Amino acid sequence: MNADPAHGELREGDARYLLIRDDSLMGIFQRLAEPARSEALRAFAESVAQFGGRSAARYAVDDPTQFLGAVAAKAGELGWGEWRFSRDSTGELLLEVRNSPFAHGHGPSAAPVCAAITGMLRAVAGRVFAAPAESEENICAATGEMACRFVARRGKIPP
User: Which of 13, 17, 81, 91 could pair with 99 as two cysteines, CB 3.0-4.6 Å apart?
Assistant: First the structure.
């Protein structure tokens, strides 16, 4: 990550980043009524899958374990929480995230709010599976759980 305070930029390669308070970002979603809130979270996931997937491509290596390790390390460096990947017996890719900035920034919620992680997991899983993937958040710290849990599987990407 390269900071250029004179030009007001934070970059990694051609990707430009910005720092923003987690509650400033997630406050957008808190302020939306349904169904706009769910639609905005889905759009957030789609955007991260597309653009965050470009960043994940930079860490791609042939060994999926090394790739997932690099993604988990970068997630921590970027403040996206503590990521731990695993696989289940069916081959699904599982992700547990402790200290999600999205859940923290949103605060209590009746439904999962970590759409950005869902989108990034879809992009990462697509590389691991070498095929389109879908992902979802099954458990969210914003609903009172200790950690967020996600699953990704081979499959058609939702429209």
Answer: 81
Tell me the C-alpha distance between 48 and 38, whole Å: 15
Interhelix angle 36-47/115-129, rounded to 10 degrees, is: 40
* Residue 71, helix vs strand vs coil: helix
Beta bridge partners of 12: 15
What letter represents residue 101's amino acid? P
DSSP letter string over 83-123? EEEEE-TT--EEEEEES-HHHHHH-S-SS---HHHHHHHHH
| DSSP assignments along 31-45, one per residue | TPPTTHHHHHHHHHH
